[in-house]
Specification:
The structure is a single chain. By secondary structure, this protein is α+β, with helices and mostly antiparallel strands. It has three domains: 136 residues, Alpha-Beta Plaits (2-Layer Sandwich); 96 residues, DNA polymerase, Y-family, little finger domain (Dna Ligase, domain 1, 2-Layer Sandwich), CATH 3.30.1490.100; 34 residues, no CATH class. The chain is built from eleven helices and eight strands. The strands form three sheets. It has a four-stranded antiparallel sheet, with helices on one face. Strands 1-2 form a two-stranded antiparallel sheet. The longest helix has 21 residues. The chain is globular. The N and C termini lie far apart (56 Å). 20% of the residues are buried.
Length: 294
């Protein structure tokens, strides 16, 4: 599907495995016709139906793409805003998550129409620095560009179990599967990770996360799994687990080792006394030698 999208334009911003923004501003063709051609081509080549939304900014294009699912096509023009947004739930507004929606519902704000009645100052009081963005967005203003590159900050996988469990062996099996998936994604993006995090939600809905940062970067499923299971065993689970997750972060495109000045391999080739004396001279004695540490 993405090969088809990139055949239309290079300005593609992937959002997930099956969703993306395209900027077709500079293509000399009706945007609605472009959307129809993409839908037809995807169906002919993959057998899949897709929904498309066309508008003059990202927020409205996303709203349009959700309008007639599945296999829908919706165009939102400038003259349709804000009236077309009024009946929508506030949860449809980019920047308003589940918790914010629930908070708004408690004060009687459920629809975009309710939001439109609030001033910019009132929205800023509710949403902080994002208040102005939401104020603009529901009026059809969204200046975010289509970004062709997004730096990956972390890669993860989690699942809610069908039945709560405290079986470490079973939880380890989930971590093993996650490790394979994460390793595959790392290799696909030519990345290495240095921090491994295990997430656990108990039957009492308490969330525990524990991380370990390594001295070297890894990408193999075995290495990720070994670190993850070590974290799991150290977690001392006292309640049955209903959700388990695994993620990696601290990513790099280069496989390097975080070296300590006193790693044995380095220490062989460094005269510690000389370093300490030089540093003391420069900094007025703030560093002292204490055994093998500085």
């Amino acid at each position: 599907m993405f090969d088809i999208l990139y055949s239309v334009t290079d300005i593609v911003e992937p959002l997930s495995i099956d969703e993306a923004y395209l900027d077709v501003t500079d293509i000399d063709k009706n945007p609605e016709d472009i959307a129809k051609e993409i839908k037809e081509k995807v169906y002919n080549e993959t057998g899949l139906t897709v929904s498309a939304g066309v508008s003059y900014n990202k927020f409205l294009a996303k709203i349009a793409s959700d309008w007639n699912k599945p296999d829908g096509l919706m165009v939102i023009t400038e003259d349709m805003v804000p009236d077309i947004l009024r009946p929508l739930s506030v949860s449809k507004v980019y920047g308003i998550g589940k918790k914010s929606s629930e908070r708004l519902k408690k004060i009687g704000i459920e629809k975009v129409d309710d939001l439109l009645k609030l001033s910019e100052e009132e929205l800023t009081n509710i949403f902080g620095k994002y208040g102005k963005e939401i104020y603009d967005r529901i009026r059809g203003i969204d200046l975010r560009p289509v970004e062709t590159y997004r730096e990956t900050k972390s890669i993860g996988k989690e699942t809610t179990l069908k039945k709560d469990t405290d079986d470490i062996d079973l939880l380890s099996k989930y971590l093993k599967g996650f490790s394979r998936i994460i390793s595959s994604e790392l290799k696909e993006e030519r990345l290495y990770c240095r921090t491994v995090t295990v997430k656990i939600k108990t039957s009492h809905f308490t969330v525990h996360t524990k991380s370990r940062t390594l001295n070297e970067y890894i990408d193999s499923p075995e290495d990720i799994y070994n670190v993850a299971t070590a974290i799991l065993k150290e977690s001392n689970i006292s309640q049955p687990v209903r959700l388990i997750g695994l993620s990696v972060s601290n990513l790099s495109t280069i496989k390097i080792k975080q070296l300590s000045l006193f790693d044995s391999e380095i220490r062989k080739n460094i005269k510690i006394d000389k370093i300490v004396n030089e540093v003391n001279k420069k900094l007025g004695g703030y560093f002292v030698k204490k055994g093998s540490d500085i």
